[in-house]
Amino acid sequence: MAMFDAFAAIVRRDLVLAMRRRSEIANPVLFFILVITLFPLGIGAQPKLLQAIAPGIIWVSALLATMLSLDSLFRSDFDDGSLEQILLSPHPTSILVLGKITAHWLTTGLPLLIVAPLLAVFLGMPNQSLSILLLTLFLGTPILSLIGAVGVALTVGLRRGGMILSLLVLPLYVPVLIFASNAVEMASTGLPVTAQINILISMLLMALVLAPWPTAAALKMSINS
Amino acid sequence: MFLVPDLVVRFFHRMASPPHFYAFSERLMPWLVVIFMLLAVTGLYGGLYLAPPDYQQGDSYRIIYIHVPSAWMSLFIYVVMAIAGAIGLIWRIKLAEIVMISSASVGASFTFIALVTGSLWGKPMWGTWWVWDARLTSELILLFLYLGIIGLYGAIDDKRTASKAVAILALVGVVNIPIIHYSVEWWNTLHQGPTVAKMDKPSIHVSMLTPLLLMALAFKVYYAIALILQARVELLQRERNSQWVKTKAVEEGGL
């Protein structure tokens, strides 16, 4: 039980910190909206074309927005030394790390879910695919946070980690992108998407179990250097 | 550990010591070069001269004698890298870290060669340099994974820490490679199916297959050569303050 308390304490602490710095929550969402607004401007306002590529646009933008927000996951804790305290605690580091990732998803992934329907309407996506879009975002964005955490943990000690981080993390995001945007595309033509959703669920479960582990190891390494 | 013969255990323990590896690799190198030359010359002679032209693709199929072995090596080296990384993380063997990081650039080169030869072959066969086909795409992503590893290693100044970071990344990558591969395959497929590794008879004639396998072996030996050359440089750089390197430098360079 003590382990769960520690997990909850980390989540609560990070949520409180995030509420005190609301701009950090707003940044990824604004970025998400802006990138999606840029696509019609770049491609031209052709409803048919936009509708066809809407799932891809939304998902690529979600990927980039998550990428952008990753740095805040461990950065401030690393700078002020609280990360060391977290690692020193008697509880398993992977559980505490999972707490941090959960809080990160609640503050950056969840807001994307809230604005996504609006943007889907912007791009003229058919109504029947809206629920699938939300479902894929709900299943997919936690995977992005979990995988991204490994990358951030590896680069948090570096002064110029940003560029390297995208090189490490984006290739690993490919499966999520493929299955999620394909599910939305299929749904908009009225085809069943159970297979894609099941695969996304299994990827989420795998990431939940496996990702905190290397993240904890990488954090220990970053702290020691 | 109990199942491994004593001799093998002792061999690995001795190889883990840098000066011993340095001396051993020096003695091994001429043999490797000879074996590589033999395999490559017979493989290329068989592939480019003896093997008949393909009934559909004519002579342009002969690029497989470079393309297929390098594609095989690109995956093989990533797995070697992950295994070496795990050994380095668990037993803290310095040499395993060096093997891992020296493999990265060799692996990236093989991946690049596989991509370039594939697109050279694709132009006459498919009529285009590049298609977003499953295997091409996953090979391209593999190249990004390699570049990420090389980039991360370069970004961290302390090389022992860098090796640890790279080992973690390689292990995460090796779990992901099958997932990426199958997701991309499911996403789109145009590449011709596998012709060699089928459970029943391979759909390639023996006269074409033998040189291919010879070339695959030659590439494996070439990888060993490139790996050892890289590892020796890396080893000297890391151990530059230790006594055996200083003695070596005095012996060879007359400092």
Provide structural commentary.
The complex is a heterodimer of chains A (225) and B (255). By secondary structure, chain A is mainly α. Chain A has one domain. Chain A has helices at 2-20, 22-43, 47-70, 75-80, 82-88, 93-122, 130-155, 161-188, 194-210, 212-224. In chain A, helix 3 (47-70) runs parallel beside helix 7 (130-155) and helix 6 packs across helix 7. The longest helix of chain A has 30 residues, at 93-122. Chain A starts with a helix and ends with a helix. By secondary structure, chain B is mainly α. Chain B has one domain. Chain B is built from eight helices and no strands. Chain B has helices spanning 6-15, 18-50, 64-91, 94-126, 134-155, 159-187, 206-238, 243-253. The mean pLDDT of chain B is 84. The interface between A and B is medium-sized, with 27 and 27 residues.
List the topology elements.
The complex is a heterodimer of chains A (225) and B (255).
Chain A (H helix, E strand, L loop, with lengths): L1 H19 L1 H22 L3 H24 L4 H6 L1 H7 L4 H30 L7 H26 L5 H28 L5 H17 L1 H13 L1
Helix pairs in contact in A: 1-6, 2-3, 2-6, 3-6, 3-7, 3-8, 6-7, 6-10, 7-8, 7-9, 7-10, 8-9
Chain B lengths: L5 H10 L2 H33 L13 H28 L2 H33 L7 H22 L3 H29 L18 H33 L4 H11 L2
